[in-house]
Amino acid sequence: MPKVKSKRRSGSEEVSVVKKSRTAERNSKAVIVNGCARDGHDSSDPKVLEQRRKQWFNKYAEGEEIGPEGVENFCYDLGVEPEDIVMLVIAWHMKAKRMGYFTRSEWMEGLQDLQCSKLDDLKRKLDSLRCELDNSTMFKDIYKYSYDFAKDKDQRSMDLELAIGMLTLLLASRWNLHADFITYLKEQGQYKVINRDQWVNILEFSRTISDDLLNYDINGAWPVLLDEYVEWQKARNDGDSTN
User: Fold this and answer.
1) Alpha-carbon gap, residue 32 to 213, rounded angstroms
2) How many CB atoms lie within 10 A of CB 208?
3) What distance in Å separates the CA atoms of residue 136 and residue 82, rounded to the nearest whole number?
4) How far apart are CA 156 and CA 154, in angstroms?
């Protein structure tokens, strides 16, 4: 076969070829970036973010809500225990009405408020959500929210056993007298439930009354439950001092 003689390009032709090559490379990169956005990578498109939250919800949901089993799977994916207080903070952001359940609207609106559309988004926020508990105002809001969130919706008050569990979750690391107060609740036999007024005042008591109880005014506007706790604690302390 005869050898084909190559045709030499002029200088202007070579410049044109280089420009076309660079343009093709840029277009190729643009396609890849746009393709990644369509394949679920970061996107600022509200419709894309909403669709991700819907798919995320459907992973755990049965119908229009996520139940206890789905919440447990959600916690597993997040890498936290269901009893971790950060789950209470997440529920507060979602304005969830029942412990162990998330409705579709609670999930969608809550995650939009948190600016999360996928698991990794929320994982990265866990530390900052825990830090919200160190904000006095936010903690008070979460504490008050937890009463209606946790109690049986058919009851006006919270069962004592559940109240003890919630108080331990919320106050064990924030109130030096927490363990003594829980012991009192377990030993006394008069109260079977904790009402809303008692719940709110327990937090106020933990924040304002000194560990030695010397600034507690027995004639103040405290619930009788706390008057009786103070008497119980003083009698206990007096007994310890005589031994």
Assistant:
1) 67
2) 9
3) 24
4) 7
Q: In order of start, what are the domains of the chain with their CATH numbers?
A: 46-134 (1.10.238.10), 136-242 (1.10.238.200)
CA-wise closest residue to 139 among 193, 94, 85: 85
Burial class, 58, CB count within 10 angstroms (exposed 0-12 / middle 13-18 / buried 19+): exposed
Supply the pLDDT for residue 240: 66
Maximum distance among all Cα pairs of the chain, rounded to whole angstroms:
118
Cβ-contact 209, 216 below 8 angstroms: yes
- What pLDDT digit, counting tens, does each position of 173-223 carry? 999 999 999 999 999 999 999 999 999 999 999 999 999 999 999 899 999
- Give the per-residue pLDDT at 53: 97
Instruction: For residue 66, give the nearest of 30, 102, 22, 113 by alpha carbon.
Output: 102
